[in-house]
Amino acid sequence: MSTTPRPRTTTRDPGELTSRLTAWLGTRLPGARATHTTVPGSNGMSSETLLFDIEHPEAQVPSCALRLAADPAAYTVFPRYDMPRQYRTMRLVAAHTDLPVPRTLWLEEDPAHLGAPFFVMARADGRVPPDVMPYTYEGNWLFAATDAERDRLEAASVGVLARLHDQVPLAEADFLADAGTGSALRRHVSAQRAYYSWVVAGKPRSALIERGFAWLADHWPADPGETVLTWGDARIGNIVYDGFEPAAVLDWEMAALGPRELDLGWMIYLHRFFQDLTEGSGQRGLPGFLRRDAVESRYARLTGHTPRDMEFHTLYAALRHAVVMLRVAYRQVHFGEVPVPEDADALILHRASLEAMIEGRYW
């Protein structure tokens, strides 16, 4: 982790973005200026975030965050960035739940202003568990916390999933349904297969990922369960915390309809991904944090729903993550940051974990 260069995430010029943002602000608040504009050092591998203040006497929210669709010149992670869909999802969740979703301010669908569609929301104060280096390594606030403080954060984070799944009326979220036929889970997996096909078009295919999809087909849940609105990228790295309580729930671009276990499997596995990397480097990490049995028990107590088929859903999470990682690696190849691999599976950092899941020796 420490010797691998961080993949390139944009080809955009920050100074030019600031000038264009100020010009756009003038169309919404005449005379307004964007000031103190920054691009976070941990900017994501997909949509980009721009932080700025609004200098204007009538600005209702002076400190803002802007989510900008991925730079089309930067070998994007996903084939499509639907900013109106994200904006609508956040407004839906804000309207029907008590979750701390940032207040949405403006949606701009015309790419002429900043080069791609974007939306603006209020900025939340707080701290986020880091991805680079991951919070499972020493040297960050979550690692330095006490066991009781991390337990408090874990309980509150699982509570975010419980409240989301219980409170959003499904009828209001039908715009998030994947195309196709069959259950929401069938459609979700079909969409991921299509995404994988897009990732490997003209590139080496991954035998491991294809084994994973075959495993899913052979172990399909007898009853996929209730369909709810799922957050999609359900992990603590997408929550801003005030102390150890959620202050803002971010990053809704992967929201979809599906069983509750989609989010649970993702939250559990994305932590395990970091924990496995940490242990692989000879460090202890946080072995007592976000354990699968604890997350499942907490969720069941909060909702009355006992998670099921979790081997399926944690493997599916690891498989989805592998497809994303393969795309990110091919982008590094595109920009000359890493050489063309002989074996596509070597580009998947959690190859050993995914293989162990498929072979039934992980949990």
Write up this protein:
- The protein is α+β, with helices and mostly antiparallel strands and about 375 residues long.
- It has 10 helices and 9 strands.
- The strands form 3 sheets. A 5-stranded antiparallel sheet has the order 1-2-3-5-4, sandwiched between helices. Strands 6-9 form a two-stranded antiparallel ribbon.
- A hairpin with a 2-residue loop joins strand 7 (about 240) and strand 8 (about 245-250).
- Helix 6 packs antiparallel against helix 9 and helix 6 runs parallel beside helix 10 (about 350-360).
- It is globular, with a radius of gyration of 20 Å.
- The chain starts with 13 loop residues before the first helix and ends in a 5-residue tail after the last helix.
- About 40% of the residues are buried.
Assembly state: single chain
Mean pLDDT: 93
- Strand % is 5-15%
Q: What strand order characterises the main sheet?
A: 1-2-3-5-4
What's the β-strand tally? 9
Helix content: 40-55%
Please outline the major beta sheet. Answer: 5 strands, antiparallel
Number of H/I helices? 10
Write the layout of secondary structure elements.
Layout: H1 14-28, E1 33-38, E2 48-55, E3 63-68, H2 83-96, E4 104-108, E5 118-122, H3 141-144, H4 147-167, H5 184-200, H6 207-218, E6 227-230, E7 239-242, E8 245-249, E9 256-259, H7 261-280, H8 292-303, H9 310-334, H10 351-358
Antiparallel strand pairs: 1-2, 2-3, 3-5, 4-5, 6-9, 7-8
Helix pairs in contact: 4-8, 5-9, 6-9, 6-10, 7-9, 9-10
